[in-house]
Design goal:
The chain is of the alpha+beta class. Helices cover 18% and strands 29% of the residues. The chain binds a DNA duplex through strand 4, strand 5 and helix 4.
Length: 208
Amino acid sequence: MSKLPRSFYTGGDVTNIARALLGKFLVTRSGRTMTAGIITETEAYAGVDDRASHAYGGRRTGRNEVMYGQGGFAYVYLCYGIHHLFNVVTNAEDIPHAVLIRAIHPIAGIRTMERRRDRAPLTTGGPGTLSQALGISTALNGTDLLGNTIWIEDRGLIVPRRSILTGPRIGVGYAGSDALLPYRFRIDPRNFAAWNDDKDRRDHARIR
DNA sequence: CAGCAGATTGACT
DNA sequence: GTCAATCTGCTGC
């Protein structure tokens, strides 16, 4: 396994990082319990110029403070008073870019995730549900993604560009013309459904 | 301080 | 399709 280095988060455009996160393994640890899934959907939030971003116009509050820190930290906030949404902070200090993780494909610790979700079948196809399955809450806001609580690994899974669907972000109609920006990225579900073998995914499978 | 909207989800008509 | 759950931050009185 190779944990993504700080430079992955601090270098490059937030939309490129959002694309590059597809196919990476998001892992959480709580005591001896590990859970993990493949990132299948992301959205980029481009800081002070992006009307959909919590940091639009330089807005800085207790909630979004971590966005203004260095890249490679977790920004977790409460949405609709109920759902804990997990974001990866990118870029340098004082440049509040972030990537919302919108969906994962469960890989490890399925039983634990089912228990946390307290629901059958296990679903991790939305930003709120994946956070719950992985045990991510606002208590983990500000967590260093180079630590051993939440991290992201490159396990060699290759996602060809033609397997990536691009489109406008979900639920940001309030953002005016910025709502139309093509900042949502996901692995083509038809393509993903063709993977029938979880072992292949674990062992450096290739999406075609 | 009241009211409201929000990077959502699941239950229900 | 409708709607409630319920915390944060913004707007207006």
